[in-house]
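testing teh design pipeline on a random one, pls ignore if ur not involved
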């Protein structure tokens, strides 16, 4: 696996897993899965590609067992990158426990501080396990055989790390908790289309998000929500107009898998 560091657009927070090298054959060649976990009103997304595991956010403290169950199902024994979009408890609640339970190659997060017990626990666990905790102030790129994560720094909800996962010219967009300012920035660098968008901030709507959906017409969208929550009507209308099929994670984990010929999107309890 090659590692390289790229320059960063100021205040742009982007994690991109992009196909690299020569064109891929029509079948087989490499492994890929992306799981958006059913953890209620919290975020944890697990990406496994070419033997590299990226855990994007770590949900709440009481979601640790659910995260471990998916890692076990995927055969993961090591987390190469624990990427934290920002430091709210519903995104880093189980991070310290994961660092203690698994070998973690590196923790990556935005370069700001927050008065948070969970961030304090994570720092302590990283120090105890001698796990590097890098606060990004420039792009960080890791290349695999068929894809690469490019991670740009951000700042809190309004500048959440944003993850673009591209595999064989098909892209998935994970928006963290990006709000208006961050989404306005991202519109300038968004791709033409996405297979799936993980919606930001649990189904909340805003004008830049509606514009992004109209501009990129995703085939699927997933909202990390609890049963008591509703996706805002304006957002649902925009998704319907784009022809986007919507998943709610309170109905189960949403997974994308490479079959050797294409992708399958499924939801399982």
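output:
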């Amino acid at each position: 696996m090659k590692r390289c560091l790229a320059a960063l657009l100021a205040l742009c927070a982007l994690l991109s897993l992009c196909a690299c090298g020569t064109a891929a054959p029509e079948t087989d060649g490499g492994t890929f899965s992306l799981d958006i976990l059913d953890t209620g009103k919290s975020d944890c997304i697990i990406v496994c590609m070419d033997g590299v595991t990226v855990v994007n956010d770590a949900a709440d403290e009481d979601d640790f067992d659910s995260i471990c169950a998916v890692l076990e199902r995927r055969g993961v024994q090591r987390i190469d990158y624990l990427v934290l979009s920002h430091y709210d408890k519903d995104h880093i609640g189980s991070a310290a426990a994961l660092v203690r339970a698994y070998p973690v190659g590196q923790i990556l997060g935005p370069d700001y501080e927050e008065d948070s017990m969970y961030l304090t626990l994570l720092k302590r666990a990283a120090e105890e396990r001698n796990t590097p905790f890098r606060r990004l102030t420039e792009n960080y790129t890791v290349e695999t055989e068929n894809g690469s994560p490019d991670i740009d720094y951000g700042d809190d909800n309004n500048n959440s790390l944003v993850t673009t996962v591209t595999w064989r010219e098909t892209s998935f967009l994970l928006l963290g908790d990006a709000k208006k300012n961050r989404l306005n920035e991202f519109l300038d660098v968004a791709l033409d289309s996405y297979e799936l968008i993980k919606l930001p901030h649990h189904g909340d709507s805003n004008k830049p998000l509606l514009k992004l959906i109209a501009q990129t017409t995703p085939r699927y969208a997933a909202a990390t929500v609890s049963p008591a929550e509703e996706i805002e009507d304006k957002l649902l209308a925009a998704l319907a107009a784009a022809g986007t099929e919507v998943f709610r994670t309170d109905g189960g984990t949403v997974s994308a898998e490479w079959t050797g010929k294409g992708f399958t999107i499924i939801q399982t309890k």
